[in-house]
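Hi X.,

You mentioned you wanted examples for the new student's onboarding notes, showing what a folding record looks like when two proteins sit in one file. Here is a clean example. The first protein comes first, with its sequence line followed by its C-alpha cells.
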Amino acid sequence: MRWWCASSQGAAWDWSWQAYPGVWAFILLLATAYWLLTQRPTTSAASQPARRRRLALFSAGLLSLWLALDWPLGPLGSGYLASVHMVQYLLIALVAPPLILLGIPPAKFQRLLDFPRLVTALRNLTQPLVAFFVFNIIIIAAHWPSLADPLMAGQFGSFVIDISWLFAGLLFWWPLISPIPAWPQFVPLLRLAYLGLNGIIPRPPFFILLFSKFPAYATYELAPPIPGTTALSDQQLAAGIMKLGSAFIMVIAMALVFAAWVRTSKDDSASSA
C-alpha cells in the first residue's frame, strides 16, 4: 500500500480503487487543527452565521485538497496524465488556499501578533511583490521537467511537489485575504493588477508543454498509455488547462475584489453624506 500518490512505475492504469492513508492523515490533520483553532466556550447567536460561513469555506478548501490528492486524481496526475496533473495544480495552489484562508476567523489571525519573529518573517514573505515572485518561482520550478520527473518518481518527491504548491498558493493569496488591520495592505486597483498579471503572465513551462514536438515529461511518456490519449496531445491539453484555468480563477477573484471595492465605496459615500 502506498501512503502518497506517485508515479505508476510501469503499472497499467485501471479504475480499481486504491487507498492512500498519507493523504487521509494529512486532510484529517488539517481538519483537526481547524476544529481546535475555532473552538470557543460560548458563541453568540449573532456570530453563528459568520461562523457557519467560515466553516463552509474552509470545508470547501479541504474538499478541494482531498479531491486533488486522493484517488483517482492523485494517481492519475502523478503517473499517467499531465492534464490531470495540471488540474491538481489548480485545485491545490489556486482554489484551496483562498478558501482555507477565508475560513479562518479574523481573531485567529490577530493571535499571530503575539509572535514577533514569525510576524516579521511573514510580513517580508507576504509583501505583494515578494509573494508574487516567490509563487511564480515555485510554480515554474515544480513544473520544470528535469526537476519534476525525478520528484514524481517517488512518494516523498510527489509529496514535496504537492506541499510546495499549497505553500505557494497560501503565500500568493495571503496579501489579498489576510484580515489583520496592522498587516500591509494594498489598494483595490493594485489588487486587480496583482491578480490580472498572474492570470496573463506566460510561464516557461506553458511554452514547453504547448510547443514541444516531443513529450516533455518522461513520467508521462513512459507510463502505460490510457486508451484515447497520447503523451503529446495530453501534454498540450495540460498547457491549455494551466493557462486558461489560471486565467479563469483570476477573473473570478478580480470580479470579487471589484465588487467589494464598489460596495465599500458606496458605504463610504453613504456614511459621509
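Then the second protein repeats the pattern, sequence line and then C-alpha cells:
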Amino acid sequence: MQILRYTAFSADPDGGNPAGVVLDAAGADEAQMLEVAAEVGYSETAFLTARDDGEFDVRYFSPLAEVPFCGHATIATAVAHAERHGPGRLVFQAPVGRVRVDTRLSEGRLVATLTSVEPRRAELSDADLDELLAALGWQRSELDPSLPPGVAFAGNWHPIVAVARRERLATLDYDFPRLADLMAARDWTTVDLVHRESTTVFHSRNPFPPGGVVEDPATGAAAAALGGYLRDLAAVQPPLTVTVHQGEDMGRPGILTVEIPATGGIRVSGTAVSID
C-alpha cells in the first residue's frame, strides 16, 4: 500500500488535522489497516477501495480501532484523489452509510465538500453531563444557556457542550482516563466543545480519548454534527453557512465551512495539503 499523509482543513502543512490516506487498499484486511494506522500515528487513516459500480468503499482507523466515519480523513482523501484524477464527485460507501464528496478548484486550491448522512440529536442526561463536566473541570455556570448540552450525530455521536466565554476553551485541561471511560461507555467519538462568537462563527475544541490522542485538531464529523444540532434546536435559520475555527489553541489552526440546509445532510468543506 502507498501511504500518503495530508492535513485537512488547512492550506498550511503545519495547520489543520493530519490524516493518513491510502487510495488503493484492495486486498488489505482489517488487521493490516489497523497496523498501518498505528504506524502512521495520526488520529485517523482512511483506506479507499474502488468498486465495480464506480463508487468506493472506505474504512477509517485510528491507531487503536476502526471508526465508522471520519470527516477530516474524508476531505484529505478526496483532495488526494482529485490531485491525481481531477476534481469532481466521489461517492464513498462508509461503515456509517453513503457519503457524497465533491471536489472543485477554488482560487487555485482544491476544496472538498462532504455531505453527511442524515443528522440526529439526542438528549444528554444530567448524570452524563455532570460526569463530563467533572472530567473537564468545568462548572455548569460556565455554559452558554442559549445552546443546551446535547448529543449529536452525523456519522458519529458527539456530545456538544457550549461555553459562554471563548477563554474557557483556551484553558482546556481534562482528566484523560475519566473522560475516556465515560466516552467508551456511551460510544462517543469526540466531545465537541464550542463557543459561539456570532450567528455564523464558532470556535471548537475536540477531546479524543477513544483515538488515543488528547485532542483532535479539526473534526469534520463533529462539525457536521454541530450543524445538525443547531438546525434541530432552531438555533439557526437555514439555509445558513457557518464557519468553525478549530485547532487554534493547539497551534494547528484549521477552518471548517459548514453549510446547513433546511433538510438533509450537512455539508462540510475544507482544503487539504500534502505533508509528505
